[in-house]
Design brief:
Blueprint (H helix, E strand, L loop, with lengths): L1 H11 L2 H18 L6 H8 L8 H25 L8 H13 L3 H34 L4 H18 L4 H15 L2 E2 L6 E2 L13 H9 L1 H8 L18 H22 L6 H15 L11 H12 L1 H4 L1 H7 L5 H12 L8 H4 L1 H32 L4 H20 L2 H19 L5 H23 L11 H24 L8
Helix pairs in contact: 1-18, 2-4, 2-18, 3-4, 3-9, 3-16, 4-5, 4-6, 4-16, 4-18, 5-6, 5-12, 5-13, 6-11, 6-13, 6-15, 6-18, 7-8, 7-21, 7-22, 8-21, 9-19, 9-20, 10-19, 10-20, 11-12, 11-13, 12-13, 19-20
């Protein structure tokens, strides 16, 4: 154990790693604070810069952007009532009223402290539980992995949108596109249509950038930019008494974030609102929630940031991304020839522990960056989108082209941008699409391996206790999702 920690420290302790992680937190915080610039977009645009980096350095850059982006969304949510991230919309419920009455600094400080504490607790949970889950996952064969992936896709598609059919339809589209290219067993072409550039399948990066970055740009230029009222950065900061008064709420919200973050497909927004709801239910000032309650800001940010480390648990332990961002990070691992999962804890344990060291350091970076950047970020948030988005578009083209130095990939990005825009307008969730696109080859590969082992018998998918557990969970999730959809439908009006 001591040798592993020593090797991990040597692997991490370079100026490049320390500096890149710090830069990543800064970039993520700035991007998260800009309305319309999402954290997945920032992580996606950062991915091409990791191609020439060592694996640890490149992944730490993405993790830093991820950590900073989650917090950054709260800044504009408090200052101008324009959440930089979906989860930050919960922070705006009490943060913006506090800013309007001249307590913006106090709200921002509380958001920062809650974010850092929750991030630390989430990181600690990752370190404690990822290895345990990976040890258990070593018992998995192809059939067990197939049922696990199927269960993950069911969860993600079922909870990622208001409508069940849209979630499943998005996942199915992702699975179909994942089959493009050469069949690995028979070597036949699938959905190539005579285009040799498609023989290796669709590149992950152009699909990702097109799906998540371009739709926001297209949507902006097709509508009138909304003008936001700038709230002054005024008032005294949060005191120790403020922090201690909300500490119980912060810890409870952090635990909620850890639990929900470890479940694939949940994300930060449900965690933030659940934490907020629990804080209001247990608070002595419940009537003040929504009117400028400091405890509400703490609860929202604790729930939001509590998922940050926990979402990496299924990724590192099982190789299953829990949300859009971890799917991008999975792509970064694969680019560097690494495959997250149980075997990684045996073959690359030094790298994993090096990442753990960096993840714990990121909490400290977040505190420093957040403390010194609030004033500057509040100005960046007011940059007109007509100036900002053309710059983002150039970065999109660069990111897509840099993968294979191919203009075809740029074309793929453009087409996926139109697809993503259509999905945005039709309110079809994009997360199931992306995660299904990533997991599709794994799903197919393990399915066919299982059939080869069983000589074509489907009984292999029901041959172990683990398989039965995942089949039961999948059935339960589908049943509950359908029941919720039916229950949520408005009753038809009685005939007059």
């Amino acid at each position: 154990m001591l040798d592993t920690l020593s090797n991990a420290f040597v692997l991490f302790a370079t100026w490049n790693n320390v500096l890149v992680l710090f830069i990543g937190v800064i970039v993520g915080t700035f991007v998260g604070a800009i309305p319309g610039m999402t954290t997945p977009m920032a992580v996606a645009l950062s991915l091409p810069f990791t191609f020439t980096m060592p694996p640890v350095t490149g992944i730490l850059l993405l993790l830093g952007v991820y950590k900073g982006g989650i917090y950054g969304g709260s800044i504009t949510a408090i200052l101008i009532n324009a959440p930089g991230t979906p989860a930050a919309s919960c922070t705006a419920l009490d943060g913006y009223p506090l800013a309007k009455r001249g307590e913006a600094r106090r709200a921002l400080d509380m958001a920062l402290y809650a974010s850092c504490v929750a991030d630390f607790i989430s990181n600690l949970s990752l370190i404690l539980f990822a290895g345990v889950l990976a040890s258990f996952a070593l018992q998995f064969g192809p059939a067990e992995v197939f049922t696990l992936i199927l269960f993950s896709l069911t969860i993600i598609s079922g909870v990622s949108g208001d409508q069940l059919l849209k979630g499943f339809g998005s996942a199915c589209l992702g699975l179909i596109l994942a089959t493009v290219g050469l069949d690995l067993i028979y070597g036949t072409n699938r959905f190539v249509f005579g285009e040799y550039n498609l023989m290796n399948g669709l590149s992950f990066i152009p699909v990702l950038i097109g799906l998540f970055a371009l739709p926001e740009i297209i949507d902006y230029f097709m509508r009138t930019e909304a003008k936001h009222e700038q709230s002054p950065l005024a008032g005294a900061g949060a005191t120790l008494a403020d922090f201690m008064g909300s500490l119980k709420t912060i810890i409870r919200g952090s635990i909620i974030g850890v639990i929900l973050g470890a479940i694939p497909g949940i994300g930060g927004a449900p965690s933030a609102f659940l934490s907020y709801s629990e804080a209001r239910r247990n608070s002595k000032n419940k009537n003040n929630f929504g009117k400028g309650e400091l405890e509400g800001v703490a609860a929202a940010e604790a729930g939001n940031n509590g998922v940050a480390g926990a979402t990496l648990i299924p990724l590192l332990a099982l190789g299953i991304p829990g949300d859009i961002i971890t799917a991008i990070i999975l792509g970064a691992f694969m680019i560097h020839g690494l495959r997250p999962g149980p075997l990684m804890f045996q073959e690359n344990i030094d790298l994993i522990y090096a990442l753990f060291i960096g993840i714990m350091l990121s909490s400290m970076y977040l505190l420093v960056v957040g403390k010194f950047s609030i004033r500057l970020i509040s100005k960046i948030a007011d940059v007109p989108h007509r100036i900002l988005f053309p710059i983002v578009f150039v970065l999109c083209v660069f990111g897509a082209y840099a993968v294979n130095n191919s203009t075809f990939d740029v074309m793929v990005m453009m087409i996926m941008g139109l697809v993503g825009f259509a999905m945005l307008k039709l309110e079809i969730p994009a997360a199931p699409f992306l995660i299904a696109f990533i997991l599709g080859p794994m799903l197919e590969d393990n399915f066919r391996q299982s059939l080869l082992i069983s000589k074509g018998s489907l009984g292999i998918f029901f041959s172990s206790t683990i398989c039965w557990v995942f089949w039961t969970l999948t059935t339960l999730v589908i049943g509950l999702t359908i029941w919720s959809a039916i229950k949520g439908k408005p009753k038809p009006l009685a005939d007059a």
